[in-house]
Amino acid sequence: MQDGPGQIGRILILTGLAMAAAGTLGVLLGRVGFFRLPGDLQFGGRNWRIFVPVTTCILLSAVLTLVMWLINLLRR
Questions:
Q1: pTM (2 decimals)?
Q2: Is 4 exposed, middle or buried (0-12, 13-18, 19+ CB in 10 A)?
Q3: Which residues pair with residue 52 across a beta bridge?
Q4: Could you tell me where the DSSP H helices lie in 1-76?
Q5: Which residues contact 34 (CB under 8 A, 6 or more apart)?
Q6: Residues 29 and 51 sit within 8 Å (Cβ to Cβ)
Q7: Residue 1 has pLDDT above 70, yes or no
């Protein structure tokens, strides 16, 4: 494996692409109402707002656990 600036550059590019993909996915899921599920809590006043996505976090955790389990199963 190559060390040095070339390797660090590749890691930074891949990290940036992963973050851009996650951001795009977040925007698309937000447009279809994914982050406004029943159980997501919202509090706010005149000049402030707090959003606690409880149900969304539980659903994302279950989906990511299933995906990681499937990847682990297929790698064996």
A1: 0.61
A2: exposed
A3: 41
A4: 5-31, 54-75
A5: 56
A6: no
A7: no
Residue 35 neighbours by CB distance under 10 Å: 14
Q: Report phi then psi at 49, rounded to 5.
A: -150, 135
* Secondary structure class of 49 (helix, strand, coil): strand
Q: Which amino acid is at 11?
A: I
The predicted-structure confidence for 14-57, as pLDDT tens digits, reads as follows: 999 999 998 998 899 888 877 788 888 999 999 999 989 899 89
Q: What would the two tokens of residue 18 be? A: 């992963």
Query: Is 70 found in the same domain as 45?
Result: yes
Same domain, 42 and 76: yes
Domain containing 65: what range? Answer: 37-76
pLDDT at position 17 is 95
Cα 33 to Cα 6, 15, 42, 43, distances in angstroms: 41, 27, 15, 18
